[in-house]
Amino acid sequence: MVKNIFKTAFRVFWREKGYSLMNIFGLTVGIAASMLLLLYVESEKSVNQFHRDIDNIFQVMEHQTYPNSVRTFDDNPGPLVTVFSDEMPEVEYMAAFTRSQEILLSIDDKGYKETGMWASEDFFEIFDVDFIEGQKENSLTDPSMVYISRSVKERIFGSETALTKTINFDGWGDYQVAGVFEDVPSATTIDFDFILPYQVWREVFTWVESWDNSGVKGLAKLSPGTDVDAFNQKIAGYINEKIPGRDHNVTIFLQPLKDRYLYNNFENGFISGGRITYAKLLTAVAYFILLIAIINFVNLATARSTKRAKEVGVKKIVGSTRGLLRAQFMTESLLLALISTALAGLIIMSVITPLNMLVGKSMSFSVSSIDQMSKLLIIGLGVGLLAGIYPALILSSFKPLSVVKGSFKSSGWSNGIRKGLVVFQFTISTLLIISTLVVRNQMDYIKSKNLGYNKEHLVTIPVEGALRDQVVQAQFKSTVLSNSNFKNVSFSGGTPLSFFSSTDAGFSWEGKVGELSNKFRIINTDVDFFDTYGIEIVKGRGFDPELATDTLNYIINEQAAEAMNVEDPILLPVSLWGSPGRIIGVVKDFHYSSLHEKIGPMVMPYRPNYPTDLTIKMTGQNVVESIAYLEKVMADINPSYPFEYSFVDVEYEQLYQNEATIGTLANYFSAIAIFISLLGLFGLSSFSADQRSKEIGIRKVLGARVSDITFQISKGFLVLVGVGFVLAAPLGYGFMNNWLQTFEYRTQIGVTVFILSAFISMFITLLAVSYHALKAAYTNPIQSLRSE
């Protein structure tokens, strides 16, 4: 019996090759697309999960409360690391670490640019990496020792052992290698290739030892069984207790490291989503694509029910039971699904590499992975079962006498279900179209937004080596500006897209009420900074190198002037971290960081002595030639340093890399969902034209035009798609309006989005239906009426 079921199934596939190929193709694309999306979501959820004790590892965060907002940061005061674990028995280990930065490592006159950071002695007790040379026990206690990754070791020392070898770190001196650790997995929020002892960094930057300053990050490992919520309540006012007599505005808390990547957005002291929103969105898209593929299968199976009706009737008359018939149709469904699953696996393996390049991931898919093969098989079997249940129930329920007599007709209920599924299918497709259009509009808005500075033709270069010397800086400016391809050169401590300093109580002014007012961002500038970036001075003046007193003065932005709440800030006495001076100018607000963040107060002192960034304004002519010239000048100044540069407009776009990636994925997978829907409509229109062949023949005999017949066949599908659009429009507006709220500066969802999405939906419907409609309309009516 089982053999007969399989034999019959393959005969049906062969007899109806077009139908079978259409179903297999639709299911294959649907399964492959959904599996790829789920692999991406899984890679997002795997970040930081490689730690064996991840459930007990937390990052120390802090809320800073201001009159109009609560801001959340992952920086902490330096003294926290030295006393927190001693005073809190729940803390098993506590480590401080700095931001990662790129440094030139030198050995035997060879230089290597590597990225690393400084960390305190408990770091490797918390951060889970294995050592291949040396030991993690008692690590980071000797200020003369460094710990490097396997990749750095292989680049510098090859196959030789690295222990006790000496490496020079530019600006920091010589360090002996005390350990080599395995490369940190790419799925991490804390990435580094070397670790230097934290005490070295702390001795250089003494300001970090103040409870008033937050400049390092904290990682804590709690004892197993600790109630984290209760512990967070206990430590909330910990820092404020360390600073008696000042305004209290800091609340610290622990965030699970496993959540740090996905739940990375905070609003007024509460988690407001983050990458988890995109993970949920793409998961929903994956399941929607599967649903669309299943709907196609069900619709095609029920639409062709009249062709299988006589087969069912004859089998019932000769004694076949409903159970056997159901088994027959379920077997056909499962076989199609399993064939599709196998083909989907091949597609996934062929596109996983280009997909990784597209989204910047290192996902893998292999037949040797039992976990991945199991998931793929489960998806395939699930699709087969879901797709086969309804056809099996419907087709096995036909009454044999009605079928044999020729009085069988598809029930209105069955037709209604089919129409409902088409509506649902195009509701999803239209929702994806609306979402894709809104994301594209927001990305276009980001690219065209007036930022308050000119980001075009700006090149930034890190200030390092000989370029730290002011005499060399002056020579560099003179040399570069002698070339007509360049307009301005500026040395600054930070740029609109990269700065690391901010303060609240550290900035004060005459008439300030209370210690705290707002968070003021700091960029150290020179006289050319504002001209280089094209930032407009709306009040007062810029810095004058001829005035020695300007080294004590400050320029602020409009938001800072508003936050200070003074009638006229020009020449107002102010103080930044105890350094007195006056405000001499106010610049027009410009965006720093991304458009997710509202423009806040900014203070820009004239401090050209400690630059970190070199910005060069090009004319935009002969760009390749200009970069080559800069490379030659830098090679003369810093021959040991590789020439590294970046364009500001490219850096700006990288701020939205996550949104750009999601937008790209949405474009591709929305197109896939629409294609599967189109495939289903193509099949349905074929059956519809076939079932109405006699009607069409009669209409042609009575004089109907081709356009009339085409419209008669197409209008039913257009109505269904129209209903889908009506349902999708309010859903799309609600979902995408919520997404846009994550941007402080955003586009509006205009009526054009809905008009365009409606047009696209109608167009693809006509595209899918018109072939069979036109074919039926041009068919000789004698062929369809011959049997009459």
TrEMBL record:
UniProt KW Membrane keyword: yes
Residues of the MacB-like periplasmic core domain: 20-236
Keywords of the record: Cell membrane, Membrane, Transmembrane, Transmembrane helix
Subcellular location: Cell membrane
PANTHER family membership: ABC-TYPE MACROLIDE FAMILY EXPORT SYSTEM PERMEASE COMPONENT 2 (PTHR30572:SF18), MEMBRANE COMPONENT OF TRANSPORTER-RELATED (PTHR30572)
Keyword Cell membrane: yes
GO MF assignments: transmembrane transporter activity
UniProt-recorded name of the protein: Uncharacterized protein
Organism: Roseivirga misakiensis
Its membrane topology: Multi-pass membrane protein
Transmembrane segments: 21-41, 281-301, 334-356, 376-398, 419-439, 665-684, 717-736, 748-769
UniProt GO cellular component terms: plasma membrane
Span of domain ABC3 transporter permease C-terminal: 285-398, 669-781
InterPro entries assigned: ABC3_permease_C, MacB_PCD, Macrolide_Exporter_MacB
Domain of life of the organism encoding this protein: Bacteria
